[in-house]
Amino acid sequence: MEDGDEMPVRDGTKKSLIGAIDDGTKTVRFVIYEAERSEELVSHQLDKTEAQPQEGWYEQDPLEILHNIKMCAENAIDQLAEFGYSKDDIVALGITNQRETTIAWDKFTGEPLHPAISWNDIRTDSTVDAILAKVPDRNKNYLKNISGLPISPYFSALKMRWLKDNIKSVRRASRDKRLLFGTVDSWIVWNLTGGVHGGLHITDVTNASRTLLMNLETLNWDPMLCRLFGIHRESLPQIRSSAEIYGIVKDGSILDGIRISGILGNQQSALVGQNCLQAGQAKNTYRTGCFLLYNTGTRHVQSTHGLLTTVAYKLGPNAPAVYALEGSIAVAGGAMKFLRDNLKLIKDVTQDTEHIAGQVFSTGDVYFVPALNGLYAPYWRKDARGIICGLTAFTTKNHIIRAALEAVCFQTRDILEAMNKDCGMPLSKLHVDGRMTSNDLLMQLQADLTGIPVLRAQSWDMSALGVGVAAGHAVGVWAVERWRHHATPTHTFLPTTTDDDRDARYTKWKMAVQRSLGWASTKKSITMTGQTKRKSSMFQSSDTLTPPDSRKTSWDVDNIKPDIDSIKPATDEGVDSYIEELIQYSARKFSIFVPLKGPKDEHTILDDAEYYMSKKECDYDMCQCCQGKKKIQTDWETIEEIIENDPEIIFDSDDNPIVVEPVKDHLYEPAPLVGTSLKKRMQLEKLPVIFKNICNKLTNTSLT
Questions:
Q1: pLDDT confidence band for 483 (50 / 70 / 90)
Q2: DSSP-based three-state secondary structure for 38
Q3: Model's pTM, two decimal places?
Q4: pLDDT at 464
Q5: pLDDT in tens, 185-234
Q6: Inter-helix orientation angle 168-175/156-166, to 10°
Q7: What does the pLDDT look like over 521-543, one tens digit per residue?
Q8: CA–CA gap between residue 231 and residue 344 (Å, rounded)
Q9: 3-state secondary structure (DSSP) of residue 31
Q10: What's the CA gap between 658 and 643, in Å, rounded?
């Protein structure tokens, strides 16, 4: 080929190109697609460093994420010459990211104020307790009608609050009005579009719906939720649709000048990439765990069976929001690693699981429940632990490995059953992706145990494709309607068992799950149980009695039974306390209850939930139909002032909650006069007894 000749494109027809940034938990990828083609043209990926400073803590370096994006983009764009393309052919850029992972940074310096807290980090357990102490009945599902999510360490609002409570630089930046919070997509966009020089602080509805701060009706930050979690509105990004031209890259990198036009959370992006754009369609991503999303259309279904409600996508500012039910499985590929690393039954997860398990035709009625850290949806039981049951003298490692594969399939069926009960739309097929889908035996077992066809995507990762579709749609080179009818290449696995056979096996699986429950004793603080520690008394105090107009007027008897069984008479004086505790539980069980003192019916901020739920997008001036005509002016300054003055809740050594009024910064307040009584400067009634005694002694000493 002579100099100057252009190399031919793949089929002789040159198309517009779409770039996709895919930031995952462990890797960063940059993928380039030809418009309206689902096959990757070129791609490059780099691994990320994940730190674990303490057990259950997972952190990432925000600057490494940006560096890896630039390196991957440069490498992928260099490959374009092989196909007759160049960087100038890229007309749009999409971003898909790990959800819930939270970053705090300084908007004037652009520096991260703390490492990114990963989505699977559980350091916010104590923060959850403090928030639940403010919620009626300490009900973790109280906010689901507004946000679709339970109060859990999983979501971004808890991570933001933890950063404000525990990191001085974050607290100081919040006070100085220079703090920015965001999920990874916000961090990437802000830096790509200029950073401190006018970078866009935005997110899309799918990522915002995973923060616990967005109202599913208005698709905007909910003032009541912001107040509850103590998060300033000005530190949060603007919520946009999933497909529109947000801005242009201007960071001096190889991506300079390209339009950013698509943002989707990775699981929602996989839903779009799998072409599950109609209500009643679902996809499952098989990784260390599993993430199953079920498209419910333009109605958001409130689950009563342990599932989450989330925004699936909103493909344009004027397009309707589409919602989904989501269920997650804690251990899928993780079970195979457990068999390899802990039990030494296999050496290579990819090859050995399919080969060894395929040497037997069934599990021999062996069932493996991989509840290594409890069970996720739809059970949500932290006290569950892994079990292998049904062993006989003829059981081999082949049966156990096959049972581990079937466990992934049974857990998927658990979620599908819950989804069907919640929305009444039976599933006709299941789209799948993820690294585990390369296992043909697993895919066939999934089809057999659910009774529906399983369609495996051509690529193991569909997240990049989904945001590529969204970005291309926004600039007019990838029509969603055409994509909706596009036949994505798949490999289909059809069921080969009878209904009676699969139902019989599923029944035994449920029996195995039942046997896995209650193995671990979970310690709950007073904010979770409403009880003081058992060493002092099992009786409720007057300030923890259930309000008469509460949603929950009595305890769940089923939840009480395990505690009753755990109370055992020991020696002499222990017998009396055992009897008293048993009488207490019996009285509650049979509704014979004499309150010590009627609780004060206090008004909480959550009593305004109905008011906020009645508001629409127009009321927040976030709609396209009436821009500039505000019907309601939200007084954010007043709300933020309330947030600043909101009393904090701390816990003493006995897990008793103490309300502490906020202390103003001493740098801006005059020092107290020498000799002023400590009693006048401290609120003794809010302090533990030991501190009251110290305070009294110090005061008496200063007076003498």
A1: confident
A2: coil
A3: 0.72
A4: 92
A5: 999 999 999 999 999 999 999 999 999 999 999 999 999 999 999 999 99
A6: 90
A7: 655 544 444 443 333 333 333 33
A8: 47
A9: strand
A10: 18
83 residue type, one letter: F
Q: How confident is the model at residue 381 (pLDDT cuts 50, 70, 90)?
A: confident
Residues 6 or more apart whose CB falls under 8 angstroms from that of 429 comprise 281, 452, 453, 454, 455
Cα–Cα distance, 139 to 151 (Å, whole number): 8
556 Cβ neighbours under 8 A, 6+ residues apart:
none
Look-up of token digits 């904090």: 648
Chain mean pLDDT for the chain: 78
Lookup: tokens for 103: 């970053």
197 exposure class (CB count in 10 Å sphere: 0-12, 13-18, 19+): exposed
What is the rounded distance in angstroms from the CA atom of residue 377 to the CA atom of residue 592? Answer: 35
Residues 42 and 50: their CA atoms lie apart, in Å, by 26
Instruction: Specify whether the CB–CB gap between 448 and 301 falls below 8 A.
Output: no
Helices (H) and strands (E) in the chain, counts: 23, 26
Q: Give the span between the Cα atoms of 295 and 310, in whole angstroms.
A: 10
Residues paired with 369 in a beta bridge: 387
Token pair 């409890």: residue? 374
Cα torsion angle, 219, 223, 226, 231, sign: positive
Q: Output the CA torsion sign for 360, 363, 364, 370.
A: positive
Measured in Å, how far apart are the chain's first and last C-alpha atoms?
A: 100
User: Does residue 290 sit in helix, strand or coil?
Assistant: strand
Helix (H, G, I), strand (E, B) or coil at 49: coil
How far is C-alpha 69 from the geometric centre of its chain's CA atoms? 23
Model confidence at 614: pLDDT above 60: no
CA distances from 583 to 339, 538, 567, 588, 600 (A): 46, 10, 12, 9, 26
Amino acid letter at 498? T
Residues 233 and 212: their CA atoms lie apart, in Å, by 14
Q: Can you spell out the DSSP letters for 364-394?
A: TT-EEE--BTBB-TTT-BTT---EEE---TT
Separation CA 701–CA 694 (nearest Å) = 11
CB atoms within 10 A of CB 633: 7
Compute the distance between CA of residue 634 and CA of residue 395 in angstroms, rounded to an integer: 66
Number of Cβ atoms within 10 Å of the Cβ of 658: 15
**Tokens linked to 597:** 């003192």
Question: Which one-letter amino acid corresponds to residue 424?
Answer: G
> Which structure tokens are listed for 271?
């839903």
- Count CB neighbours of 531 within 10 A: 18
542's tokens: 């007057």
Q: Nearest-5° angle of CA 56, CA 57, CA 62?
A: 150
Gap between the Cα atoms of 564 and 578, Å rounded: 10
State the helix-helix crossing angle for 573-589 and 557-566, rounded to 10 degrees: 170
* DSSP one-letter code for 123: T
Which residues are CB-contacts of 487 (< 8 A; sequence separation ≥ 6)? none
Neighbouring-strand partners of residue 659: 649
What pLDDT, in 10s, does the model give residues 108-144? 999 999 999 998 888 888 888 888 888 888 888 889 9
Gap between the Cα atoms of 295 and 636, Å rounded: 34
Count of CB atoms situated within 10 Å of the CB of 374: 20
Q: Quote the CA–CA distance of 398 and 363 in Å, as a whole number.
A: 8
What integer is the mean pLDDT of 356-373? 89
Two structure tokens written together for 348: 């290579």
Other CB atoms within a 10 A radius of the CB of residue 611 amount to 9
The answer to whether the CB of 203 falls within 8 A of the CB of 305 is no
Contact (CB, 8 A) for 89 and 80? yes
